[in-house]
Amino acid sequence: MSKKLTDKVTWVGKVDWELKSFHGDEYSTNKGSSYNSYLIKDKKNVLIDTVWLPYDKEFVSKLKDEIDLKEIDYIIIQHSEVDHSGALVELMREIPDTPIYCTANGAKILKGHYHQDWNFVTVKTGDSLDIGESKLVFVEAPMLHWPDTMFTYMTGENILFSNDAFGQHYATESLYNENVDNAELYAEAIKYYANILTPFNRFVTRKIEEVLALNLPVDLICPSHGVIWRDNPTQIVEQYMKWAADYQENQITIVYDTMWNATRIMAESIAAGINAVDKEVTVKLLNASKEDKNDIITEIFKSKAILIGSPTINNCYLHSIGGLIEMLRGLKFKNKKALAFGSYGWSGESVKQLSADIEKCGFDLMNEGIRTLWVPDQDEINKLKTFGQDIIKLM
Ligand code: FEO
Fold it and tell me: Domains of the chain by range and CATH?
């Protein structure tokens, strides 16, 4: 069902309440998502982005309820990823000559995905399209989060179409930020930033500074996922500036996995030590094999330090921690401290390996970590508590 945003702009996307994972299984979408597509009717008619491939027929059919497809003068594809370009093949079957406006990288990637020789018109920052009373101004936003990404600003209506930036994987029928549960919205927005945009912090800061310098009035920010920011729309821009500045809260996150609970007891003992000397700091314990991996990343994003624990198995550490380390390697967190811990029976390599690997991920190692032989007894638990207390001194 379409939804009118202004006299000229209508949301024609798809709310996907059933979506439970994204990017294959790399990102959990427990609250669903939406693929936001926008139809602009001025003297010229413009479609901005489409929806994910499984909904291509539904999208085109509903679009026909809004407009005779032949009356679409221009299609703008701000980003080629399949969740936004997926309905193009179905749409272009009906209007094969309609120009597709995108960046040069966008054209390359669309060709790489669909192997079609569509009528691409490539644009750069500052290029614009006169559509009647309004003008659409393009702003390239490479690596937010693909090399092809761009934003589109609509004059007159003061709308920033920001594609993935400022989005959230959050299904809602309510459309606007002021009409949804704001705690849920914040949780999904920070999860999205932490898991998708963290590696591109510097690009985010630079791009926002560049757009702010243009001093454009903004009444609506229309991302390609989740709600449209209408109530105080630039609040999400301010939030992005904070998140992009190697964000941290007063939080220490202890992520571990355990085979027979020895490493869990270590985690709890260290946490008790931290809490004994610092009542202010938030300490969270997350078992990597039981918790949602993207929620763990979000908690790490919020942390000033992480403790990562695994027993030794087959001269290595456990696979849940291995998967997490691989995610951390790609996300390139900065400004965070770390150390490792784990139980062992004989060879006991895990702590040394974890320390080396977490340091390679960009974390500042606080010390060489701590190991416990077999299961901690009371003396060992006391030692672990002291170890936890000492962490606060190292902060
Ligand atoms: Fe929502 Fe990068 O696609």
Answer: 3-244 (3.60.15.10), 252-390 (3.40.50.360)
Does the CB atom of residue 195 touch ligand 1 within 6 A? no
Q: Is 81 in the pocket of ligand 1 (CB under 6 A)?
A: yes
CB of 90 closer than 6 A to ligand 1? no
Is residue 257 lining ligand 1, measured as CB closer than 6 Å?
no
Q: In the predicted model, what is the mean pLDDT of residues 298-312?
A: 98
pLDDT in tens, 312-322: 999 999 999 99
Q: How far away, in angstroms, is 373 Cα from ligand 1 center?
A: 46
Residue 196 CA: which ligand 1 atom is closest? 2
Instruction: Give pLDDT, residue 109.
Output: 98
Point out the residues that are catalytic: 23, 79, 81, 83, 145, 164, 192, 225
CA distance 112 to 107: 9
pLDDT at 46 > cutoff 90: yes
- In ligand 1, the atom with minimum distance to the C-alpha of 146 is 2
Q: Is the CB of 79 under 6 A from ligand 1?
A: yes
Average confidence score pLDDT of the chain: 98
Q: Does the structure show a pLDDT above 90 at 1?
A: no
Residue range 325-378, pLDDT digits in tens: 999 999 999 999 999 999 999 999 999 999 999 999 999 999 999 999 999 999
Reported as a single tens digit per residue, the pLDDT across 198-207 is 999 999 999 9
CA of 164 to the centre of ligand 1 (A): 5
